[in-house]
Amino acid sequence: MQQFGEFFINHWDLFLALFVTLGMLAYTAFGARLRGYTEVPPLEAVLLINHEDAVLVDVREDSEYATGHVQDSIHIPLGKFAGRMNELESYKARPVVVGCRSGHRSARACAMLRKQGFERVYNLRGGILAWESASLPVSKGGKRKKK
Based on the domain organization, do 64 and 109 belong to the same domain? Predict the structure, then answer.
């Protein structure tokens, strides 16, 4: 045991790196669940959309959305999201998948939706980049018409 203590003292930087790495892995694995939403890869998002009538919300900026988006997605840029969240009230009972370019901005929108009482909130892991990498279709052009 004395040798371990000596090793620990002499190589404290290695142990620090180990604990930081383990912390980052734990955050990646459990962080989204602690915040109340789940991250889903594109193919799982498609299953939610097709089998559970999930709605997809795109929080990218207008210029990003125009370059290509998931068909029938609802476009609300993150900068306007708090003020326009009432547009999603009719979807509160359905699963809501939120996406952006890479998955970071959509995570903030997911947290806002959870605070507003949305129960089934999903962050599109990897965003539209992962969607396109999975060879899933994107549309260009107009916004989704309100029902």
Answer: yes
